[in-house]
Amino acid sequence: MTISAPTDNIRRSCLRPMVSKVGAGVVSFVKLVGGITSLAFSTIRVLFTHRLSTDELLKQFVQVGNKSFSIVALIAFFTGLVIALQLSVGLGRFGLKLYVGQIVALSIFRELGPVLTAIMVAARVGSGMAAELGSMVVTEQVLAIEAMGANPVQKLVVPRVLATTITNPLLTIMANVIGVVGGMVITVIEAGVTPRFYFDQVSRTLIIDDFASGIIKAVFFGFFISIISCYQGLATYGGTEGVGRQTTRAVVFSSITIFVSDFFLTKLALYF
What we know:
mainly alpha; 8 helices
């Protein structure tokens, strides 16, 4: 008894900080999910109960599209190149190079197009939203909006969420087409087929469900990215250092949400 008592005290002293750290992490996660969910419901409610500023909405459309178009196009093209190249090597072992186009089209339209586009939008647009709103919080511009009797959600959040939710599927469609074209370049070179044969294979393989599955995902991804980025921006504290911190969190949390929700959306789509 006299020997085990100090050992038990040492174990308790070692476990206490660990349990405390885990508990603090769980509480922080619950607060984060609760805050984002509350902002999402407020955004939807304000969207249908307040007048939307068309000028601000058009401005956000331009911002989201211009910031993402070039990088999404570049990533999509090289994604198509890489997939086609890898499939040409893998399927070439079995003499199936002629079917590279079909697999490239399915993988891009159903998964890679929506996911990679969303990741790029999160990195390019989501970070900008968090930094912009965070700077407004630090400089007390959000408080000024509230002092004038306006609703910050209506002025700042709704246009950004709506623009990103609509623009992300459009960017995904563009990425799908460019990715398939990139796959064609490699398939023509490696498999020795004609572009006409390649696109004929693609058109015969893809069905409306393949297209719709990716676009529906893109809509949800756009909403998740914008609402998380806006929440992180509005939750900024600690001056300019806090702006950088919240911007990083916006990109990280948006990326995690994209991959997690992609699994559940894919699973859900299989039942319909």
